[in-house]
Structures are given as structure tokens and as C-alpha cells.
């Protein structure tokens, strides 16, 4: 057993790892390693998870414009934020205080979808008619900017868009159709680590707000990268080493094999690539040469932010292909690397890589996926943050019970 003195924890995550170690040592010896970890994580509340580095949850008010929301997300280097209803009372419950989570990808998808306004089957109600009218108005505004389809979008479209009235005046609450939840699935402070880990893996959530029921507010937001960072800080502990020193194949990774990888070609329109990711609900795809099978790059859903934060770099392109996008962003980041996050890299590993090595690489590079390659450099699979977390714990039969019964459905006007 590693003692506190031996480990000399340098972070809250390392101290949390020692807490798991203490629980690990008292588990029944007949339990399998996975069963031991399940039991350990079930006994730790999510309130113990370290706060984000800023020690505060960034929230966006519902009357914030899209332009202002993008600035806030960029300033804090985050991809999404909970939206607070400005009309909610001070004593409102958290479900009445928040209307959802706004994200870069949702903003871009909403903008693009306005060029295809909905056609309600029975627009007899005032709200349905208003929605149709607003959709048509937005479509006309976007048509004036020159957008028709992902393939036809000119290089200066997003530069014109970020200067347009629709971008500067549309409020965050008006794009609630881009939110995945209404308002969102959240955990209470007393919920367990096991519940959190299962939601971030098996149930495909990228982040989970933790709410203080008494205050009706969000205490913390736990993300997949934050969990991976916690695991990286636990290197050297018995419970982690017993699992982390296994090769990927020993824990069933990669989950996505070569013939299952969704790819994009470098000459495809970049907006089409983002639409594919959104539709398939995946965070990134490898970029392939048209005349070859080798991956030459990676494009992530989070990279969509550059269309809104640095639209001027695409001005000289007739259309923005994946290759054009990557070239323009790389050039831009060379001059602004201190201000903006890095472009998603194509990072690879061999099948012989251990779970520990993979976690440390993901944490060091601050990326969400690593591509597994064979001895010839050909893609053999892909492993994501979610995949790794899913190999750490398993869901006991009937574990969630009626947990999801209180989750509100998607917004009525959701088109994402």
C-alpha cells in the first residue's frame, strides 16, 4: 500500500486517489478488481471531486447574445456553459433556474439549420406560427449572407455572419432547440462517483453539472477530461497500477475498430465534417487523403469554435474544405498560441500501449481521442476518454432504477 508520505500528493486528485486506495484495501478479497473499484467509487460522493481550476462555474445568462456568449466561452477556454434564466426567481429550484447548456457546436449547427426553416404540420397555434415565421426570417437573413449548403458556403461567410444583425441580436434562449436537454441531467452532491463515471461513459455524457439542491445552483461541472486527469494523478497507487499496467487489448480496447472508424477526406467541406460529427454524436474524425488510406490529420467538434472566433482567416477561400480549415487554423495559432487553445492533433499509439500510458498521453496532450495504428501506420482503431472510463467500472444490474424518470425531454423545438 502506498502511504501518504510515499505519494506526497501534489494535487487534490492525488489525495482522492489515496482515498480510493484506502477503500481498495478493505474490500473483500474474493471480489474481482472491477468489483473492488465499483465498491470503492460507490462509497465516494461526487462532492469530493476537485473543483475546476478557476474554482467557479461559468454561467451564461439567457438574454446574452450569441456574439457575447461566444466571447465568454472563448475567454474562459471552455466549450459549453449552463444557461441561467434571467426571469427565474431568487428562490427557484435548479430546474427552474437553468434552461440548458449552450455550446459552440450548438451555436454553429443552429445557425446552419436556420437556412432550412421547419414546416410545422399544423401551425395553428400562435407559438407554432411564430416559430415558422422566425425560421423563415432567419433563413432570409442567412440567404443574404450567401449560405446555401455546407458545400457552397464561401470562405467569407462566417466573417460576414459574425458582423451580421442576426448574430449580434439573437439571444441564447432563442436557440434552445440546439440544447440536448431541458434543462440538463445533473447530479446531487450526495450521488456517488460510480454514478458519475457511468454517466460519463456508458451514457455518453461529456460533462455533468453537480447541483446544490439547497441553493438551487450548480456547484461543479465534472468533465471527461477532468476524470482522465484524476486518473493520471493516481499513477503509482496499487488500485490504479493493477488496472493501468494492462495492455489495451486486455481491457477490450479499442472499442472502435478499423472498419468502424468514421472518416472525412481532406477535400470535403469542413461544415459537412462538423455535421457528420454532430449527427453521429462523435467528438472527432481522422482526416484522410483522397488518394490514400493514411490519416493526415484530425478534426474535432471543438475545433468548430474557430469559425466564430477567427472567421477572418478563411476570407480568401472560395469554399472551406477540411484541408483549408486545418491549414488556416494552424497558421493562425502560430501567431496566437497564447490566446487560443491548440488545434486538435492526430495522436497515435500502438496496440501494445498500456492503459496507463494512454491516460498519461491523453492528459499531457489535452486531447479527447487517440488513434491506434498497426506497424505500418494504418488505422487499427480509436480510443476516446469515454472508452477508457467505461473500462474502469461496470453498471450493476438495476443500478439506476428510476434515476432517469425525472429527466426532462429534449426541448419541443429541438432540431439538433
Automatic annotation (TrEMBL):
InterPro entries (UniProt xref): AMPK_gamma/SDS23_families (IPR050511), CBS_dom (IPR000644), CBS_dom_sf (IPR046342)
Signal peptide limits: none
Sequence ranges assigned to domain CBS in this UniProt record: 52-119, 256-317, 339-400
Keywords annotated in UniProt: CBS domain, Repeat
SUPFAM superfamilies per record: CBS-domain pair
Protein name: CBS domain-containing protein
Amino acid at each position: 500500500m502506498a502511504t501518504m508520505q510515499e505519494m506526497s500528493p501534489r494535487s487534490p486528485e492525488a489525495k482522492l486517489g489515496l482515498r480510493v486506495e484506502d477503500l481498495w484495501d478493505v474490500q473483500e478479497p474474493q471480489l474481482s478488481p472491477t468489483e473492488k473499484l465499483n465498491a470503492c467509487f460507490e462509497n465516494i460522493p461526487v462532492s469530493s471531486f476537485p473543483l475546476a481550476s478557476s474554482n467557479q462555474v461559468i454561467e451564461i445568462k439567457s438574454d446574452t447574445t450569441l456574439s457575447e456568449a461566444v466571447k465568454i466561452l472563448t475567454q474562459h477556454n471552455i466549450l459549453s456553459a449552463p444557461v441561467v434564466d434571467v426571469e427565474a426567481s431568487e428562490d427557484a429550484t435548479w430546474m427552474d433556474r437553468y434552461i440548458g447548456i449552450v455550446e459552440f457546436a450548438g451555436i454553429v449547427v443552429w445557425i446552419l439549420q436556420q437556412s432550412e426553416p421547419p414546416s410545422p404540420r399544423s401551425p395553428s397555434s400562435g407559438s407554432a406560427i411564430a416559430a415558422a415565421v422566425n425560421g423563415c426570417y432567419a433563413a432570409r437573413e442567412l440567404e443574404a449572407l450567401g449560405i446555401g449548403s455546407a458545400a457552397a458556403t464561401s470562405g467569407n461567410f462566417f466573417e460576414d455572419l459574425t458582423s451580421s444583425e442576426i448574430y449580434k441580436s439573437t439571444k441564447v434562449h432563442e436557440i434552445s432547440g440546439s440544447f440536448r436537454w431541458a434543462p440538463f441531467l445533473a447530479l446531487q452532491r450526495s450521488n456517488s462517483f460510480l454514478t458519475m463515471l457511468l454517466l460519463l461513459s456508458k451514457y455518453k455524457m461529456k460533462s455533468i453539472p453537480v447541483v446544490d439542491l439547497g441553493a438551487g445552483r450548480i456547484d461543479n461541472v465534472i468533465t471527461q477530461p477532468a476524470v482522465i486527469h484524476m486518473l493520471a494523478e493516481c499513477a503509482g497507487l496499487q488500485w490504479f497500477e493493477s488496472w493501468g499496467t494492462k495492455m489495451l487489448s486486455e481491457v477490450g480496447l479499442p472499442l472502435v475498430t478499423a472498419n468502424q472508424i468514421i472518416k472525412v477526406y481532406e477535400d470535403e467541406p469542413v461544415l459537412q465534417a462538423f455535421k457528420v460529427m454532430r449527427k453521429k454524436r462523435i467528438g472527432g474524425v481522422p482526416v484522410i487523403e483522397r488518394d490514400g488510406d493514411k490519416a493526415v490529420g484530425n478534426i474535432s467538434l471543438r475545433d468548430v469554435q474557430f469559425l466564430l472566433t477567427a472567421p477572418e482567416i478563411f476570407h480568401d477561400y472560395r469554399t472551406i474544405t477540411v484541408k483549408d480549415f486545418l491549414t488556416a487554423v494552424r497558421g493562425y495559432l502560430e501567431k496566437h498560441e497564447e490566446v487560443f487553445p491548440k488545434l486538435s492533433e492526430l495522436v497515435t499509439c500502438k496496440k501494445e500501449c498500456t492503459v496507463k500510458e494512454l491516460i498519461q498521453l491523453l492528459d499531457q496532450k489535452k486531447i479527447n481521442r487517440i488513434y491506434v495504428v498497426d506497424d505500418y501506420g494504418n488505422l487499427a482503431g480509436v480510443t476516446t476518454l469515454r472508452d477508457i472510463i467505461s473500462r474502469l467500472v461496470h453498471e450493476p444490474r438495476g443500478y439506476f432504477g428510476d434515476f432517469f424518470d425525472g429527466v426532462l425531454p429534449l426541448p419541443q423545438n429541438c432540431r439538433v
